[in-house]
Amino acid sequence: MHFVGVDIGGTKCAASLGEASGGELRVLHRAVPRRTAGRAPKEMLGGLLEDVRECLARLPGGASASGIGISCGGPLDSRKGLILSPPNLPGWDRVDAVGWFGRGTGLPAWLCNDADAGALAEWRYGAGRGCRDMVFITCGTGFGAGLILNGGLYEGSSGAAGEIGHVRAEMHGPTGYGKIGSYEGFCSGGGIAQIARTLALREIQTGRPPSFCRTPHELEGITAESVAGAAYEGDRVAVEVFSLSGEVLGRALAVLIDLFNPERIVIGGVFARCRDLLWPAAERAIKLEALPGSAAACEVLPAELSESIGDMAALAVAEYRSSKGGGER
């Protein structure tokens, strides 16, 4: 079976064509990604519809697509097919993505938040294969969880289950998801950069600037990637940044372990790239905070799909919804 995926992100958007067969999902074609910044929703969706049609034109002779999967950061209403002002998509308020692509192609379309879409992809084709109870965590620009419970995607009463990034970890600290001290503030890529700025300024003021930021003028240029590079080279402050983020990440994982008793937690983004920087502190926190039996039953793994997760997640949404008869948007 063939499907089209649309991955809508705060930095870029892309459409892809995929084929599911023999328990595998292959990307057959990927349109050139479009930059999101500075573009109104209608302009962006118009370009993406062109890309979707380009993907459909690439279908093998005689083949047809079974539907379109759309992956986008929340908040959104997956049942109504609406994107509801995600923090990384300013101006995208009550955007009817499902209606747009459905009317434009005549195909069924389904919308899913990026954590749920990532959960489907990793569950069916990545590190979560074979699990009935699994949590997937997206750990990049944002920080959220997708839940596979009892062998199926769990979205909650309004499609907003798994928004652990919005939960407050501390009363003070970096800001994420519009909340000071949230798990997203501590554990996302942007959160790691915020922690690094705070610690770098402290060190600069005491005359001991870290290698990744020598002067106050360089503070705004700090990224999770630059801090990780410094940590791998042994920079003391960079290592401290990842240790702090990892400790809070471990507490978030302990909450998920105690609540859902999963077989596996699969983490993408920053964790998949920097596991050895984050995991020691995270593992200590899990041992301190989680129920021992539940922690022992749960394996924490980096995502397998990592760099291809955007395309695979959107395609997995279409494949999963189609397999359920297409009754859910």
The CATH H-level homologous superfamily of the largest domain? ATPase, nucleotide binding domain
Q: What pattern of helices and strands is seen along the backbone?
A: EEEEHEEEEHEHEEEEEHHHHEHHEH
CATH fold type of the largest domain: Nucleotidyltransferase, domain 5
Q: Specify the CATH architecture of the largest domain.
A: 2-Layer Sandwich
Structure summary, number of beta strands: 16
Largest sheet: 6 strands, mixed
> What sort of overall outline do the alpha carbons produce when their principal axes are compared?
globular
Tell me the strand percentage band.
15-25%
Look at the structure and give the mean pLDDT.
Answer: 94
Q: Report low-confidence residues grouped into runs of 5 or more.
A: none
